[in-house]
């Protein structure tokens, strides 16, 4: 806008200066013309024409005064236009300076915001790194928990072997020791392979791990799959007994926990009254109907050592019930283990 105003002012100034220059030239030429006319009048003009020439001279002088007055007016206009132009230039410069300052403030503000967001991005990247590290630790713990579960299965099998009633030692009387029951302890994910490849005839099938099926299947699908597994195993081993371990409590999702309770009710309804079907109930892992946090790992899904111990106890109780094997009496700590001072005789305490 400043350039446009300057161009317009320059054009008007040039017009005024040109008019002033033309007037000055005309004024300069008038005296010369008058002088020339006087010389001509002296030489050629007759006395009769003097009056007419005087009138003409008067007209020329009047015209000179008019041109001088016009010139003065144009000079005043030129000064006024110059002042207006200077004022407009100053105003535009002031506006440009204000705009420049506003742009500087905006740039400074944007730079501060960029710095803040860059810092936040670095913090988020660091947080992601920490979460990734924590995730790897949790995965490692889950793998360790799976290994512990496998070890637990082995321990249950060994404890069942130890729990088999031993024949009382009597002189001369010889009793044939009862055959040890064979257990097939599997999860619902690998049961198909075991049923097809297991060559021995098991006395009991223990099914667990419905907890993982809740992630991908609806309760009715889990029930149908479990029923198919039991039916297939029963058709292969007609005398087979089966223990179905209910889903263990979890707190990762209210939906999964509710589905687990639905599965429990459907299982009881589906297999109620069927011979050789026994349930391992884990209600003792609940507190007021809700999962006991003291029995869960940090992921709120898998059981910790204490929870696994209760799980093993519940399954063991169902196995003993199904095989009609009495549970061994609860072990109590002997006095010899409670007191540090022991006598010389085995099994005797001396005070």
Q: What does the model show?
A:
The radius of gyration is 57 Å and the shape is rod-shaped. It has two domains: 2-110; 159-163 and 181-328, SGNH hydrolase (Rossmann fold), CATH 3.40.50.1110. The protein has helices spanning 2-43, 50-163, 191-197, 210-213, 219-236, 254-271, 305-323, 335-338; strands spanning 183-187, 204-208, 241-245, 277-280, 286-287, 290-291. α1 (2-43) packs antiparallel against α2 and α2 crosses α7 (305-323). It contains eight helices and six strands. Mean pLDDT is 77; it is low at 166-176 and 334-351. InterPro entries: SGNH_hydro_sf (IPR036514).
Task: Please name the CATH topology of the largest domain.
Answer: Rossmann fold
Order of helices and strands: HHEHEHHEHEEEHH
- Annotation field: number of helices: 8
Rounded mean pLDDT is: 77
Report the C-alpha radius of gyration, rounded.
Answer: 57 Å
- Integer count of domains: 2
Report the structural category: alpha/beta
Under the CATH scheme, the architecture of the largest domain is 3-Layer(aba) Sandwich
Distance between the termini: 114 Å
Shape: rod-shaped
User: How many strands in all?
Assistant: 6
Residue fraction in strands: 5-15%
What topology, given as strand order, has the largest sheet? Answer: 1-2-3-4
Q: Extract low-pLDDT stretches.
A: 166-176, 334-351
Which CATH C-level class of the largest domain is it? Alpha Beta
């Amino acid at each position: 806008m400043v350039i446009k105003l300057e161009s317009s002012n320059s054009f008007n100034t040039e017009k005024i200066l040109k008019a002033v220059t033309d007037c000055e030239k005309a004024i300069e030429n008038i005296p010369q013309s008058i002088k020339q006319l006087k010389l001509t009048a002296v030489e050629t003009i007759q006395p009769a024409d003097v009056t007419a020439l005087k009138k003409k001279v008067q007209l020329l002088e009047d015209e000179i005064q008019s041109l001088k007055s016009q010139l003065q007016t144009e000079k005043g206009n030129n000064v006024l236009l110059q002042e207006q132009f200077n004022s407009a230039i100053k105003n535009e410069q002031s506006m440009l300076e204000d705009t420049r300052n506003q742009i500087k403030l905006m740039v400074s503000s944007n730079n501060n915001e960029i710095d803040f967001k860059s810092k936040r991005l670095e913090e988020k990247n660091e947080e992601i790194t920490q979460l990734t590290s924590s995730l790897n630790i949790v995965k490692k713990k889950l793998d360790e928990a799976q290994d512990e579960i496998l070890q637990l299965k082995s321990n249950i099998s060994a404890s069942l072997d130890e729990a088999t009633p031993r024949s009382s030692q009597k002189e001369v009387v010889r009793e044939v020791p009862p055959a040890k029951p064979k257990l097939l302890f599997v999860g619902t994910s690998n049961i198909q392979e075991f049923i097809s490849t297991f060559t021995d005839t098991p006395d009991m099938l223990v099914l667990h791990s419905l907890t993982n099926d809740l992630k991908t299947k609806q309760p009715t699908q889990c029930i149908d799959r479990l029923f198919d597994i039991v039916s297939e195993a029963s058709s292969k081993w007609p005398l087979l007994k089966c223990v179905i371990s209910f889903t263990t409590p979890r707190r990762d999702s209210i939906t999964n926990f509710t589905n687990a309770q639905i599965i429990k009710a459907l299982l009881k309804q589906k297999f109620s009254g069927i011979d050789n079907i026994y349930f391992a109930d884990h209600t003792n892992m609940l507190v007021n109907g809700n999962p006991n946090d003291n029995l869960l790992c940090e992921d709120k899904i898998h059981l910790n050592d204490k929870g696994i111990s209760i799980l093993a106890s519940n399954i063991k109780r169902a196995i003993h019930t199904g095989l009609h094997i009495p549970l061994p009496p609860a072990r109590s700590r002997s006095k010899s283990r409670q007191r540090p001072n022991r006598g010389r005789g085995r099994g005797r305490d001396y005070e």
